[in-house]
Amino acid sequence: MNTKSVSKFVLLSLIGVFLFFVPVQNSKVPVVLITDTIKALLGPALGLVVVISCTLLVLGLIGARAFHIKALEQYYSGDPVIKMGFFLASAILVWMVTLNVDLPFIQHPEIGGKILTLASTVFFTIALAGTLVIFIIRSGIVEFVSVLCEPIMRPIFKLPGEAAINMISSFVSSASVGVYFTEQYYTQKAYTTRQACAVVTNFSVISVGYIGVLASIAGIEEMYGVLLIASFVLVLVMGAIMIRIPPLSMIPDTCIDGSAPVVTTRKMSFSERFRLAVEQGAARSEQFTAKAFLQNFLQAMKFAQKTIGVMVPTVMLVLTLVYYTPLFQWIGAPLAPVLGLFGVPDAALAAPSVLIGIVEISLPSILVLGTGACAAAAFFVVQLSIVQIIFFSECGNAILSSKIPLGAGKLVLIFLMRTAIAIPLVALLTNLIY
């Protein structure tokens, strides 16, 4: 092995691990701290970033469609017409919020009052973490971990070792970063279509920091540690189940270009596997260059911009339904007897929170706190919302904005299936704890 390559692999990997996996302040990793610092520095101007981004998204679209500017046509290549409609709607809505248009949903503190803050948080998280993620995807650590984890990941999850990094990255940064990781490996043919769909819908978990936020919102801060451990275990258990049943099991197990995946089964001793892992890590680290860093930065900015372009109108529409109609209360009512059957305390109070998490993951915690449900019911709601994975304010929209072929219909179906599987598991855990 080339000593210089190995040294580069080790150094870049240590930087990547530090940025994404090492808590340095209040259980936050450096990437999250940098994002929070940028947001704090921008202060009141934070929402302006969203307004500018969505406006430029539409102006660029006009340049591509009306004036056929080649660079802009390439920027929007592959975007379906419906997504372009979302881009236009996002610009209109953020300007309506900025100009404080006198419409109920714009004036509502939980809809128009929060959309710019929510969108800016998602934008900076994706942009910063997506830029720095090169210290993970080009350092060689993914190849190192994938070789070591391959004997475990393939038989249990039918996934390559890279999936281990996907799950860890989501836990320590955000669900959107996990989706971004997956898209990168999917386009590089490290994942097949089925594997990419399985990873984003099973391992795009919210960060450990945000799990603490949900616990605080629901008034069960003392259960933070339990929620962390339980989330990790339940995500693994549910992942092993979901990959084996439709709709994921019915998705083509081919690469993005339709070619058959190259699957290598390597049986070797641990020392041989470790040496191979280091060799592959060192080889990959040679692809870390200044040019690659710049390209990764541009890709991250593009992904962040398009994600909030889809996110803004989607979240505002659904939140309007949440706060102005009894739709989710009607949907939740039939679930009360089901929750009661599994012994969930205060089942009637917890039921409306079961499905609303598909909109925004903090809504179940907010609702269950407002109902005055007991601590056990609050724990059930928070834990369930974490393992449901799919929520359209971030993870769902990141998936829709990616090249991974999962439409809104399939995401809703997977959300419902995860909910059905998770309810008895989380109910059992709740009754064991309380």
TrEMBL record:
| The keyword Heme belongs to this UniProt entry's keyword annotation | no
**Keyword field:** Membrane, Transmembrane, Transmembrane helix
On the tree of life, the source organism's domain of life is Bacteria
Domain Nucleoside transporter/FeoB GTPase Gate, which positions?
A: 121-220
Show the coiled coil region(s).
Answer: none
Q: Which residues cross the membrane?
A: 42-64, 85-103, 115-137, 196-217, 223-243, 308-326, 338-359, 366-391, 411-433
Q: Return the protein name.
A: Nucleoside transporter/FeoB GTPase Gate domain-containing protein
